[in-house]
Design goal:
single chain, alpha+beta, 5-stranded mixed β-sheet, two-stranded antiparallel ribbon, about 10% strand, extended
Length: about 500
């Protein structure tokens, strides 16, 4: 019954819950079990519009919960009674039961019910124009929601992932240390042999030239080892910088947000003042002076429009940074997929430019305006797009390091409506992906990047996010000629 209710198949849900209550009636009495079944029966009846039956089930559930001291089911049922009264436009009764539910849930720290009850109390007090009480319960609702689904929970998940990554890195470091010991022993052995030969060649002038040759070879090997150690050190420093970048993004974005708001607000106010000035200047007697002033005013107005346009553009980039730094709400929203795709493309490009001033690439876009808005979780899709963009820019930058001067790094983005799906293509003209590893790229912790530059989680998480939203993530590649990642999302979800 509970499963059918969650699938919104209410007739089947009602049938099986009634079967459950009938079986319960034949068993030795267990008030807690009876309260649970009646609570669910009441919910199904209310969703079917059978309000009298719903109240009857809720009332019996309350009696059983009270008689057994079952505060958990008592507060849940009180909250549902309050919601039903609110739907029936009986705010006083709804307020009474919502307060009872909130108090009882708080006594046992039942945060889910506290969140439902406090959210309902906010609506009820707002309707009564009791702003102080509404604000009070709004704060409680926000704190409760944060404790259930907030940043701390996400941080714990990040901590677990980080610890697992550190464990793997420690294993890898141990392996590297073992290999380095072997290399060191080999190097010591070679040097010992070399010293023996040097002494021997010193005593035997006829073999002196051969000894010098071996010495030169050993010198090259030592220099090569030192170069590898320096390169590894540089990669570790860069990894630390990349890790701190995510923590700084939100703070920088908030700092930029305030002056951008002032730019936008004052430019709009100036436009209104200019319109008023035009009205006043129309009263001047000299027609020539009036025409000159109008031309100047029109120029100022055009400049203000440009200020406003670029201010809002910068504002959109900052909001994109903030949105990327926030935890996903998990709720689907009606979203302009073309706008989202374009904003995260600019955000990825500006982010890479901020880290590497020498980085440059041509961006090409082809958006299908007929798509309109679709229901997605924008933060999650944004993270997928940002990961694909970063990979594309990385691929073109790597190819540029070895290509001739005629090579031009290009990243292309295309959106298109295909039957009942929306297709997003992210293409680059980098080196492509080798065919022998193409089947592994969506596996966790698999990466083609050097150690310290990639965790191997980006594409794996992106694949899971797209699957969770009912879509598909595919790849097409040709070694030496670039890669295209294809996201397919349902048009109606």
């Amino acid at each position: 019954g509970y499963a059918y209710e969650k699938m919104n198949i209410l007739d089947s849900a009602l049938f099986f819950q009634q079967q459950a209550y009938a079986l319960y009636s034949q068993m030795p009495k267990n008030p807690i079990l009876g309260s649970v079944i009646l609570n669910r029966l009441g919910l199904i009846q209310s969703r079917l519009g059978n309000n009298d039956e719903a109240f009857r089930s809720y009332n019996i559930s309350l009696e059983k919960a009270n008689s057994s001291g079952d505060v958990f089911n008592l507060c849940k049922t009180q909250c549902r009674v309050a919601e039903l009264y609110n739907e029936l436009n009986k705010p006083d009764s709804s307020l009474h039961y919502a307060q009872l539910a909130f108090i009882n849930a708080g006594s046992i720290s039942q945060k889910a019910t506290m969140l439902d009850a406090s959210s309902l109390l906010v609506k009820l007090y707002k309707a009564k124009n009791n702003i102080d009480s509404a604000f009070h319960y709004q704060e409680i609702a926000m704190k409760t929601k944060d404790s259930l689904y907030g940043v701390e929970k996400f941080k714990k998940l990040q901590l677990l992932t980080s610890k697992e990554q550190q464990r793997k890195e420690q294993i890898q470091q141990e392996q590297e240390r073992f290999k380095n010991k072997i290399r060191m022993y080999a190097l010591v052995a070679v040097i010992a042999v070399f010293l023996f030969l040097a002494i021997f060649f010193y005593r035997n002038n006829r073999r002196k030239q051969k000894a010098n040759t071996l010495l030169q070879q050993q010198k090259v090997k030592v220099e090569s080892t030192l170069a590898e150690l320096k390169a590894t050190q540089s990669q570790l420093i860069q990894s630390e910088k990349m890790a701190s970048l995510g923590e700084l993004t939100a703070g920088i974005a908030h700092e930029i947000q305030n002056p951008l708001n002032f730019v936008n607000n004052f430019s709009e106010v100036n436009s209104e003042l200019i319109e008023e000035l035009k009205t006043e200047k129309s009263k001047v007697k000299s027609e020539r002076d009036e025409q000159l002033e109008d031309e100047l005013i029109n120029d100022i107005a055009e400049n203000e429009k440009k200020i406003n346009h670029h201010g809002k553009r910068a504002d959109a980039i900052v909001k994109g940074m903030l949105q990327h730094s926030q935890t996903s709400s998990g709720q689907k929203e009606s979203t302009d997929i073309n706008k989202l795709t374009d904003e995260y493309l600019r955000l990825a490009y500006h982010g890479l430019r901020g880290k590497d001033k020498d980085f440059n690439a041509t961006m090409k876009t082809d958006f299908d305006d007929s798509i309109g808005k679709i229901n997605i979780i924008p933060q999650d899709i944004g993270r997928v797009l940002l990961n694909l963009y970063n990979n594309a820019f990385y691929a073109t930058n790597e190819r540029k390091k070895t290509a001739d001067e005629s090579y031009e790094p290009i990243v292309s983005v295309q959106t298109k409506k295909v039957n009942d799906k929306v297709e997003i293509k992210v293409s680059d003209n980098g080196n492509g992906i080798r065919q022998n590893i193409i089947d592994k790229i969506f596996q966790p912790f698999f990466t083609t990047k050097p150690t310290g530059q990639g965790t191997g989680l980006g594409l794996s998480l992106s694949y899971d996010i797209i699957k969770a939203q009912g879509g598909e993530l595919k790849v097409e590649t040709k070694e030496g000629d670039g890669t295209t990642f294809i996201i397919q999302l349902p048009l109606l979800a």
